[in-house]
Amino acid sequence: MTSEAPEHRRRDASATKAALLRAAQELFTERGYERTTVRDIADRAGVNQALLFRYFGTKEELFHVVLATESRVLIAESPAEQVLARTLAKMLSRDMDAAQDGVWLAALRSSGHDSAADAIRKQLGEDYTRVLGSLTDAEDADLRVDLVLAWIVGLGMLRTVVRKEPLVSADPGAVARLVLRAMSVLLERAETEPDC
Amino acid sequence: MTSEAPEHRRRDASATKAALLRAAQELFTERGYERTTVRDIADRAGVNQALLFRYFGTKEELFHVVLATESRVLIAESPAEQVLARTLAKMLSRDMDAAQDGVWLAALRSSGHDSAADAIRKQLGEDYTRVLGSLTDAEDADLRVDLVLAWIVGLGMLRTVVRKEPLVSADPGAVARLVLRAMSVLLERAETEPDC
DNA sequence: CTGAGATGTAAGCCTCCGCTTACATCACCG
DNA sequence: CGGTGATGTAAGCGGAGGCTTACATCTCAG
Question: Residues annotated as DNA-binding region (chains A, B) (predicted)?
Answer without folding.
Answer: 37-56
